[in-house]
Design goal:
8 helices, Four Helix Bundle (Hemerythrin (Met), subunit A), mainly alpha
Length: 219
């Protein structure tokens, strides 16, 4: 058994529905007739993600634009592996883990690259902010994919609606525009990104703690 087959529309954003899934159909139509496994497509997506991330380290407007295009290709591959798994009956828990891991690693490296670009150098502040930004992305992924909130209401319901690629594109395009027109604002942009990512998983953690305390009181 191979890659996980994400359910169409389960966590899709606008970019997934209008761009990624439609663009993934063509390669899947070809791959389904070839001896290519869904996990191989996932690993190809990892390679695309690494190329995308590399464009955001010490980025220029030109390289960041290329990084955005490579990220789009990685997102298409991410949908293609799941569709291929569904059509070939090769769905597995390991495939799901691999799929989520590739997305998480790609997003982490892109964000850390943004920090390196914004702070400009290998100073201690770059290391600290890079660690904060990367860990924020990692924890968001963990709480979204492996420790989902027990209840989907209030603020948690709002955050879950952000668990797709739409906010990622907003971040990438925002970074590109600032890099092009107002690079002095990039450090502020990084702090907003750090606060937002850590705030996301903290909301989910607080919901889990509140639900646990409620169960203890009921018992």
């Amino acid at each position: 058994m191979e890659a996980a087959a994400d359910q169409p529309g389960s966590a899709d954003g606008l970019t997934d529905r209008l761009l990624h899934r439609p663009c993934a159909r063509l390669p899947v139509c070809l791959l389904v007739h070839l001896p290519v496994t869904p996990n191989a497509v996932t690993l190809a997506g990892l390679a695309l993600g690494m190329i995308a991330a590399s464009q955001f380290w010490y980025a220029t407007p030109h390289s960041a634009t290329l990084g955005l295009l490579w990220y789009f290709l990685q997102a298409v591959a991410d949908h293609a592996d799941g569709e291929l798994a569904r059509q070939t009956g090769q769905v597995s828990a390991f495939g799901h883990w691999l799929d989520v891991s590739v997305d998480t690693v790609t997003d982490m490296l892109i964000v850390v690259g943004m920090v390196v670009t914004a702070i400009s150098g290998n100073s201690p502040s770059t290391l600290v902010l890079g660690a904060l930004a990367g860990s924020g992305i990692l924890l968001c992924s963990l709480f979204t994919n492996w420790f989902p909130p027990p209840a989907r209401r209030g603020v948690v319901r709002v955050t879950l609606r952000l668990a797709n690629r739409d906010p990622v594109y907003i971040i990438l395009i925002g970074f590109l525009l600032l890099l092009w027109k107002a690079d002095r604002l990039l450090p502020l942009f990084i702090w907003i990104l750090i606060i937002g990512s850590h705030g996301y998983w903290l909301v989910h953690l607080s919901q889990r703690i509140a639900a646990s305390r409620s169960r203890q009181r009921d018992e």
